[in-house]
Design goal:
The chain contains 13 helices and 16 strands. It is an alpha/beta fold and 477 residues long. The strands form two sheets. Strands 8, 9, 10, 11, 12, 13, 14, 15 and 16 form a nine-stranded mixed sheet that branches. The protein has a seven-stranded mixed sheet with strand order 3-4-2-5-6-1-7, with helices on one face. Strand 14, helix 9 and strand 15 form a beta-alpha-beta unit. Helix 6 packs across helix 7. The longest helix is centred in the first third of the chain and has 17 residues. It is elongated and about 85 Å long. The protein starts with 8 loop residues before the first helix and ends in a 20-residue tail after the last helix.
């Protein structure tokens, strides 16, 4: 091997960054040193945990290119949560090999084996497997062989939220042992998404014996691992956006339990004001508490609407201002009266349209998982008959309810950006929030569920809807 191909990995990284006019931050130097030392020491089971946005996949991509530069006959298998994510790393490594000054000897004569999800470098051995191959964790890897297997973020929010999914993920990872050649290396990289994360070596039999490097964003003194990108102000803003639970897991690498999170109604800022609509210069404006609102909508989680008949039919209404503050103006329980001539669905649609008109709301989302499948079209017809211009949007929930509630409310509460009208706080919403526990699957959460749906579907300003009779919209163009 020539000196250029036997260079140390840290030098390999430095040359690449210089070639790309990039710096090499301290935590990247630490990752590079650790990977090179572990390889030299003969360690064959490695776990790299680093905060989201740390560039860990970038460093591992460089590690793969370096590995091939000194062992061109090696085979590398990249696994990720899906094929596209795995392919992204393979494409990155391919680009590094094409452009890195220390990898020119790897470029093949032709491009017949230089594809998006696999490639083969110039090598001496005649092997069936490519030099690098991408595969989703659920894909078929039977028959493949590799000296290095990279499991890059195989745990994501969608495949670890139930015990069944986690067991399936473990089984898929265990299959890699039959792909790895004797003496080969397993390198797992990622961040925990749930309390029962696969990345807990203390409780995960699959990872016992793994050497690990753990790089949280903040050390025990609160200092940032990457101050150039994550300043104290940026850290505070991020924590406010994602909430303390997600921040602890994704940035501090602490697989804390959902039970550690409690929704405290005391963190909601109360107010008594009603929205004020006005017009000026042929434009409509909506103000609340003296602040101009730029967005607003409602979320309807429908039910039969008969008291004592099970889930409540709940309509949550809210606004948002340009600073990202959220204002829950109404949480209404819709009921029906059997003595009225109209059917229950029509009665509820009329009440929804009346509230939308009273609160100047331009759109409503309707949960269609249960009985609401036919309601969007019915509400459009009812609103049109009543002269209420509104965009009706069907919505289907696919995420776990407990996860949805935490994802919606936890960040707003932590950042003190959630406001609610006194009437809302005096109703069941605040009581449901105070009593809510992630582990209790049978607690009443009708209001929480409706407000959660509204928050998750109304983070930014809504598109324009058909104009009001006077041709004005308070949300602007």
């Amino acid at each position: 091997m020539t000196s250029r191909t036997t260079s140390e990995f840290l030098e390999f990284v430095w040359v690449w960054n210089e070639h790309q006019s990039l710096t090499t931050p301290a935590h990247h130097r630490r990752i590079a040193t650790w990977l090179a030392q572990r390889r030299k020491a003969g360690d064959r089971r490695l776990l790299l945990m680093a905060f989201r946005g740390s560039g860990k996949s970038t460093m591992v991509g460089l590690f793969c290119a370096w590995w091939l530069s000194i062992e061109p006959d090696a085979r590398i298998l990249v696994l990720a949560a899906d094929q596209s994510l795995a392919g992204r790393m393979v494409r990155q490594v391919r680009r590094i090999i094409e452009r890195h000054p220390l990898c020119s000897h790897l470029l093949p004569d032709g491009d017949d084996s230089w594809a998006a999800d696999r490639f083969t470098v110039a090598r001496n051995a005649v092997l069936r497997d490519p030099s690098m191959l991408a595969q989703g964790i659920g894909g078929n890897i039977t028959g493949a062989r590799a000296e290095l297997i990279i499991s890059d973020d195989v745990e994501v929010a969608g495949n670890c939220d139930t015990s069944h999914k986690r067991e399936e993920l473990r089984a898929r990872l265990a299959e890699t042992e039959f792909v790895l050649v004797p003496g080969g290396m397993q390198l797992i990289i990622g961040t925990p998404h749930v309390a029962e994360s696969l990345y807990r070596p203390d409780q995960e039999p699959l990872l016992r014996g793994y050497r690990r490097l753990r790089l949280p964003l903040l050390d025990k003194h609160g200092a940032s691992a990457w101050p150039e990108r994550f300043s104290p102000e940026a850290v505070d803003a991020l924590r406010g956006r994602v909430g303390p639970l997600a921040f602890a897991r994704q940035m501090q690498l602490e697989p804390v339990h959902d039970e550690a999170s409690r929704l405290d109604p005391a963190l909601i800022i109360r107010y008594r004001a009603e929205p004020e609509y006005m017009e000026a210069n042929r434009r409509g404006y909506l103000f609340l508490l003296g602040r101009r609102m730029v967005s607003g909508a409602a979320f309807w989680d429908p039910a039969f609407g008969r008291p004592g008949s099970g889930d409540g039919s709940v309509l949550a209404c809210a606004y948002a201002d340009q600073e990202g503050r959220f204002y829950i103006q109404r949480v209404a329980w819709l009921t029906v009266d059997d003595a009225v001539g109209d059917d229950g669905a029509t009665q509820q649609c009329r009440k929804v349209a009346e509230l939308l008109r009273a609160l100047h709301l331009p759109a409503v989302f309707i949960e269609t998982n249960g009985i609401g499948g036919f309601l969007p079209q019915m509400l459009r017809k009812t609103a049109a008959e009543m002269g209420v211009p509104v965009a009706v949007r069907p919505h289907t929930s696919t995420r776990n309810k407990q996860e949805r509630i935490l994802a919606a409310l936890d960040p707003l509460l932590a950042a003190r950006r959630l406001h609610a009208h006194e009437d809302v706080m005096g109703g069941p919403f605040a009581r449901e929030m105070a009593a809510w526990r992630p582990e209790d699957r049978h607690a009443r959460d009708d209001a929480l569920d409706a407000v959660t749906g509204l928050i998750l579907n109304e983070p930014v300003r809504l598109p324009m809807v058909p104009p009001a009779p006077r041709g004005m919209s308070w949300r602007g163009a």
